[in-house]
Amino acid sequence: MSAQALGRSVFVMACLAIGFAGGGAVAVEPAAFFKANCVDCHDADTRKGNLDLTALKADFSNVDLFPRWVKVYDRIESGQMPPKKKPRPPAGDVQAVTHWLHDSLIAAERARLDPQGRTAIRRLTRGEYENTVRDLLSIPGISLQAGLPDDGNVHGFDKNADALDISHVNMAKYIEAADSALDMAIATAPAPPTVLHERYSLASDYATRIILINGDAVLLKNKQPDPNFPPADDHTSRNLGELEKAGKFSVESSVGVFRHEDESFNPTFAHFATLYPGRYRLRASFFSFQWDKGTVLPSRGVEAARLSAVQLRENGRGTADGSRVLGYYDSPSLNSQVHEFETWLNYKETIGFNTASLAPVVNYTRKGKSMAFTGPGIASDWLEIEGPIHDIWPPQSHRVLFGDLPLTAFKPADHKDIHPPRRHVLKQEIIHAKNKPDPATGIWTVQSNEPTIDADRLLGAFLPKAFRRPVSVQIRKEYVDQVRERLAAGDTFETAMRWAYRAAMCSPDFLFHVEPGDALDDYGLACRVSYFLWNSMPDDALVQLAASHKLNDPAALAAQVDRMLGDPRSQRFVEDFVGQWLRLRHLAENDPDRKLYPEFSPYLQDSMRAETLAYFRELIDKDLDASHLVRSDFAMINEKLAKHYGIAGVSGPTIRRVALPPNCPRGAFITQAAILKITANGTTTSPVVRGAFVMGRILGQPPEPPPPNIPAIEPDVQGAKTIREQLDKHRSDPTCASCHSKIDPPGFALEAFDVIGGQRDRYRSIGGGDPAPRGAIDPFIGISFKLGPNVDASGMMPDGRKFGGIEEFQSLLAADTHLLLKNLTEQLAIYATGREIAFGDRDDIAAIVSAAEKHGGGVRTLLHALVQSRFFQTK
Amino acid sequence: MNISLNRALSRRTFLRGAGVVMALPMLEAMAPVYGAAASGDGASPRRMVAVETNMGIMPQFFFPEKAGADYELTPYLERLAAHRKNLTVFSGVSHLGVTGGHMAQKCFLTGTPHPDRGGFRNGVSLDQHAAEHLGGQTRYPSLTLAMTSEGGSTLSYTRSGATISPETSPRKIYQKLFVQGKPDEVEANVEALRQGRSMLDFVGDQSKRLQGSLSANDKRRLDQYFTSVRDLEQRLHSSQAWEYKPKPKVDVPAPTDIEDSKMFVEKTRQMFDMITLALETDSTRLITLFVDTTVIHNITHHGGRPDVIAQLRAKETAQFDALASFLGGLDLAKEQGQTLLDKTMVLYGTCMGSANAHSNVNLPVLLAGGGFKHGQHLAFSKTNNYPLTNLFVSMLQRLGIEASEFSTSRGTMSGLEMA
User: Fold this and answer.
1) What is the CA radius of gyration of chain A?
2) What pLDDT, on a 0 to 100 scale, did the predictor assign at position A818?
3) CA–CA distance, A777 with A875 (Å, rounded to integer)
4) 3-state class of A848 per DSSP?
5) By CB distance 3.0 to 4.6 Å, which of A213, A308, A417, B87 could disulfide with A323?
6) Around Cβ A435, how many Cβ atoms within 10 Å?
7) Could you report how far apart the first and last alpha carbons of chain A are, in Å?
8) CA–CA separation, A141 and A135 (whole Å)
9) Cα–Cα distances in angstroms (integers) from residue A227 to residues A200, A222, A224, A252, in the given order
10) B119: which chain A residues are within 8 Å (Cβ-Cβ)?
11) Residue A216 DSSP one-character state
């Protein structure tokens, strides 16, 4: 658009001669059309929907005005405007105006986007960076994300170039991250660390000993109270030192725990703290029991014990630096079950234990202590730790960098002019830990007799892998020259090579997705599909297909997609995509009010997350269609969620597929506890927030942001006024109603669920109200809330269809599978390509949707259709 | 600690009382070495401290009704009564267009609108804008601190909107500021910096090579990489120079970090102590402190319950007491005949006008010290807020930086004059 046209509104444009040709359509001036059909409501006085067409400039090159015009186009094109109650304009006029708008918008967009390539060059996200380093250097558990600055968010995802700025802060962190990764990757000893193989008892833990003498735990032997350590009552000696001296805390006994992890009690297997980062095999044995004032009885069912890796710091005395859950484990009644698994452990990590499925109870303040207590307990028999496990030495991480070159002893005295490589002396700094480092072996380092030749060979293998595409001889030479310079300056071969590896890992070729050209080349395609489905670099199989120009063959590519979705790395896609699309990353951001929601627990929250991820995985694996986003006849749940949802017959912490009884609204995303928690604030729910979530994330129709200077609603939990009553203005004020008639209905339907996703007929209240029945809440949890006003989950869709509650609402949404599939396509497309869906991309997206629909419209089918599409395969 | 500090106390006594004892070099003694005056006219340099608490401040206990110099003291302002002449209270101010409840916390010093929208990219924060002009004169161009148990939260953003990770451990801040490395450590650091710089040169060249194959738009984006490489190189260069200069000596023992996240008031006080030391030794002139009170998030959604409001009020009162002690300390420290408070602007505020409602208008904000005519309540319209970024322009100008706009500003702060 020319500069002169800037500032003109469509009414000024009436003076321009715009011809509408062909098709027998009745020619009509856009201005005349708008004047005749639109400005009654959309002028400066009425401004319906906050739109004043008399002031909206027909400047399509203006990026702020463009989306408004797209909206105008959409409303007219879909027949939503003019509204039903107004007279219809002649069909030919509508067509003429929409054609004119369509072509003008496309032209303006092309002018803006064509010169730049659609997916702008962008750096790796934090997640991509961590996964790429893990895969490149074969160190699968290294933690790097936390040290990097946050990524931004554009169009709901962190994958867009606009979300991925880079500054000196990022650069400094990349250097640190590369150093710590190389430290971990490079072998510095002639043999692997001695494999530890030890059995540990919770009874060695100081915190656990304290609670044993206070009656919050008991020592058990053969499923009976340990005769050598009678359960604590008021008369028990509480002198820890004496008891320890007398050898009372037998590590042969099992520790039965009643108390939950809390501020002052974080039990760990304290005699172990990881020294050598790496792969470890863990075996743990648990059972559950019912305690009755000194007697052990069968438990109420399978309880869940939790193990986590706890990151200690300094000498281990202060609070830990956080922990990550390793898993929840079946603890059957009076029947010890052994669980075995492998996990990566980092330096100074120990293993924590928690009675996850129990309600938090404390006995130390109880008169009579454990001898006066009746309730459930979980017992830990023992935990075995074996590792670090090395299948080969030097490890694969080292071989990626130094191939098969031998490690030899380096005696500084023999090499006076060479700086010895830096070595950190490994120490067990955690005071309670008993595992010790191996004795020092002196300095061992890689030996090269032909350093320049070796450097050239090693970098020749490493650089293309790190840069995810072939690397020219010239570039390789530049790196080798640097190695040569470092060697000349007195570095060892290891140190000199390390310089080059660090530089490679801080270079733009590594940090950025480099995609030359318009259509992606073989390597660009390998990267795109791999960062899409693995959130990481391509593996050898993909690279080989790319190198032999076979990857762009549709059948070969489809086979790769299936292979990749079957690989465990695809879980990274599930977590990263769902984490952003449905905001699952934000699940833990609010803590539910303890008085209103006393039954909430970390176990419930982790189960929520697991459900949402498992459900998306199930949609892919079983190729289920998009109606499952909103309605399902099965759910992916464990016992904790089943109880939360009121579903019978599910036992233990493992998530599994459960068929739902008829008329149960659960299963699909919009009624999953995780989503309902994410869309609430921990205290109250707002139909506006939840409605906007459903509109934006599920239906692909994000509402306009609220106009300025609208006072927020002060939520009230005193039980006086419901949120619906407070939102009355949305109905009575036409300005509000134009948007809120669309935003609020999904939120009204979801009012049937509270802030932790429990189904409700009445709001919980802390002020007035009726006494609340216990329902499914654990008998050891006090009911600290009352029941307030009734919930009204009925509403009316913008098109006038009414729903009486959540299930009718779900049916209305599920009926439009096409809309749901289209939105999911767009979300996946934005995620996979890191670019926005432009106006002109609509045909491409429609083609993907219809390709998927042709083959049943399942989610796996959709992933295939997307990967095969032009949209996916162009830059 | 009692907030009515006796001005007759010696500075040393005060610092001991505050748990921080400081020996020479005093500010005045150090001036020739560290305080090479920013303005070049021999005047002592100006400084800025900006503090944001992220869970709101209950407005009913903060805002006075009456505008002007004879405003009434409200429960929170009562705690700052000793500094009444040295501070200005604002009402009816906010960051225009900054919405999104908690999301607004990242915009407190940037004023960048709509953190809650897709496509949001933060802008440069006030301190980093200033550091671009004033950096290099002190060992650290700026200090980005956070009192947090989460990590990641920060007030400081680079010009491209990248977060600057905060330092969260008072013990580490102390080490950074005052613990001198051994000579071989210094040498090793210098060598590491030199290696870092040469590597940055190398990768910078790599990006130039890559430029050749890119579209104009991608070239611009890769420029951002090149710029960050060069920025870091310059920083390393400057750090290399500072490595050889001795760090100021203080005979205050290194603080012990408090682990309990519930003791956030005590932790805030520790941070204030470190800030005081950093300013007194002229280790930096620009400091931001993010006070993360997420641990009380639940009670900020008080839903109108009187018992919860009382609980929250007690916590917030303690925060204002900590602020009062901090201002008191700055007011006692002297530099070239003026107090450190006269030379240091202290901005204190929050991103939410009411945490209960997650509203981002009518922000509780005050500015103390730094060389303005204080002692008043500047009241603006509650329904049509005045841009807080105007205050930022005034603050930049006070630092001696030529600035006529910042973010959404429309000028300088009306009614606030330089002293």
Assistant:
1) 32
2) 96
3) 53
4) helix
5) A308
6) 17
7) 26
8) 10
9) 21, 11, 8, 13
10) 154-155, 162
11) S
Per the CB < 8 A criterion, the answer to whether A793 and A751 are in contact is yes
> Does A499 contact B298 at a Cβ distance shorter than 8 Å?
no
How high is the mean pLDDT of chain A? 90
Q: B304 contacts in A (CB within 8 Å)?
A: 714, 716-718
Q: A121 in contact with B at a CB cutoff of 8 Å? A: yes
B361 lies within 8 A of chain A by CB: yes
Of A502, A509, A716, the CB nearest to B199: A502
- Would the CB atoms of A715 and B229 count as touching at under 8 Å? no
pLDDT-based confidence at residue A20 (cuts at 50, 70, 90): very low
Site of tokens 């104009």: B216
pLDDT of A671 strictly over 90: yes
Residue to mutate among B210, B290, B383, with most A CBs inside 10 A, is B210
Residues of B whose CB is below 8 A from A499: 195, 199
Q: Which of residues 44-103 of B touch A (CB under 8 A)?
A: 97, 99
Q: What is the Cα gyration radius of chain B?
A: 22
Going by their DSSP bridges, the two strands B93-94 and B386-387 should be labelled as parallel
Q: Measured between beta carbons, which residues in chain A are less than 8 angstroms from residue B305?
A: 717-718, 766-767
In this complex, do A482 and B202 lie within 8 Å of one another by their Cβ atoms?
Answer: yes
All residues at 6 or more sequence positions from A508 whose CB lies less than 8 Å from its CB, including other chains: A514, B203, B206, B207, B210, B222, B225
Residue that has been written with the tokens 């530089």 in this structure: A503
How far apart are alpha carbons A834 and A162 in whole angstroms? 9
Q: Does B175 touch chain A (CB under 8 A)?
A: no
Question: Exposed, middle or buried by CB within 10 Å (0-12, 13-18, 19+), for B210?
Answer: buried
Residues of B (15-44) whose Cβ lies below 8 Å from A: none
- At A582 the pLDDT is 97
Flag the least confident range among A24-33, A420-429, A507-516.
A24-33
Measured distance CA(A646)–CA(A800) in Å, rounded: 32
Q: What's the pLDDT at A719?
A: 67
Tell me the sheet residues that pair with A324.
A309
Q: Do the Cβ atoms of A169 and B163 come within 8 Å?
A: yes
Structure tokens at B148: 């947090």
What is the per-residue pLDDT for B25? Answer: 29
Q: Is A172 touching B (CB cutoff 8 A)?
A: yes
Q: pTM above the 0.90 mark?
A: no
Residues of B within 8 A of A172 (CB-CB) are 232, 235
* CB spacing of B164 vs A169 below 8 angstroms: yes
Residues in chain B with pLDDT values less than 50 = 1-42
3-class SS string, chain B:
CCCCCCCCCCHHHHHHHCCCCCCCCCHHHHHHHHCCCCCCCCCCCCEEEEEEECCCCCHHHCCCCCCECCCCCCHHHHCCHHHHHHEEEEECEECCCCCCHHHHHHHCCCCCCCCCCCCCCCCCCHHHHHHHHHCCCCCCCCEEEEECCCCCCCCCECCCCCECCCECCHHHHHHHHHCCCCHHHHHHHHHHHHHHHHHHHHHHHHHHHHHCCCCHHHHHHHHHHHHHHHHHHHHHHHHHHHHHCCCCCCCCCCCCCCCCCCCHHHHHHHHHHHHHHHHHCCCCCEEEEEECCHHHHHHHCCCCCHHHHHHHHHHHHHHHHHHHHHHHHHHHCEECCEEHHHHEEEEEEECCCECCCCECCCCCEEEECCCECCCEEEECCCCCCEECHHHHHHHHHHCCCCCCCCCCCCCCCCCCCEC
Cβ contact, residue pair A712, B357, below 8 Å: yes
Amino acid at A65: L
Structure tokens at A113: 């986007």
Q: Answer for the pair A32, A15: CB distance below 8 angstroms, yes or no.
A: no
* Partners of residue B207 in chain A, C-beta under 8 Å: 507-508
Predicted local distance difference test score (pLDDT) of residue B150: 60
